Amino acid sequence: MTSTTRRRFLGIVAASATLLGSSPLRAAMTHPTDLPPPAVWRGIALGADAQMQLLHPDPVHAQRLIRLAVGEIHRLEKIFSLYREDSALVRLNREGRLAAPPADLCRLLSEACAFAELTGGYFDPTVQALWHWYAQRQPDSRSATPDPDRLRPILNHVDYRAIRIESDLIELDRPGMEITLNGIAQGYITDRVTELLRANGLEHAMIDLGEARSLGRPDASRPWRAGLADPEDGARWLDTIDLHDQALATSGGYGTPLDASGALTHLFDPHTGSATPRWRSASVRAADATTADALSTAFSLMSESSIRATISRFPVQAWLLPPDSGTLIRLG
What we know:
Layout: E1 17-18, E2 39-45, E3 48-55, H1 59-80, H2 88-95, E4 97-99, H3 103-118, H4 128-135, H5 148-155, E5 163-166, E6 169-172, H6 185-199, E7 204-208, E8 212-215, E9 224-230, E10 233-243, E11 247-251, E12 281-286, H7 289-299, H8 304-311, E13 317-321, E14 329-331
Antiparallel strand pairs: 1-9, 2-3, 3-7, 4-6, 5-6, 7-8, 8-11, 9-10, 11-12, 12-13, 13-14
Helix pairs in contact: 1-6, 6-7
């Protein structure tokens, strides 16, 4: 479930949400009349374009907070990255077990399994085996619909219930299983950075690390505002969404096609092994970015009725873009 295209959590997941601006998930703000100009950081986090805008009356302290936040991003990348050979997640996948795991890995894996249970298994952190299978297919067969019989052995390695998580040991019960946290880790890191900044006295910010989360507001008259871009035309907004101490995440298979036609994507159905999501994009606004990230990933594969049932248990909203329409369906 990883590669190298935009919306890469530690590797990938495609995003269609862009915060009003020139690049994906870019914070938009008018120049506030009662707050200072933003201290802005732009860089790469987990392989994706990232940006932070901090509003603080002391510019020196704002830069200090940015350095603190970047340090936290780097710390968590060492745990969750699928590209670093020394990351805790890569070591777990390589050995099938990890003694004395970092507390953040235990916490996020536990949350991932909880979201898997909540969504009927549509969110499953063990789909990395499917990524490998699709990536290794012969070029002349990549546009063909996979034979279910060929996928069946791979699906034996996909089951979040086969992960055992203890404070002193994480173990994968089936040989050949691998974990990807690309459907949730960017949201988790966004939350940790946001909470770190808030704990250090920051009241107004937009944190965009592939998923976005806001603090406060950019001026007294309105919250931060995000725009959901048309996958066919990134300069056209399908909708705009206010974020006031809220998070926004979007998943869409078009950001990471696995074949020339774009029919196969990095969004894998853990039940069937299919790589063709139900929706062109699924966006979720929630109180935290971890929830928004995980649910947008799962909702990409779920029916509208199943999404409605899930939303009834959460104070979240969703925006779904059908494959044959340019009109968003709003739920919640």
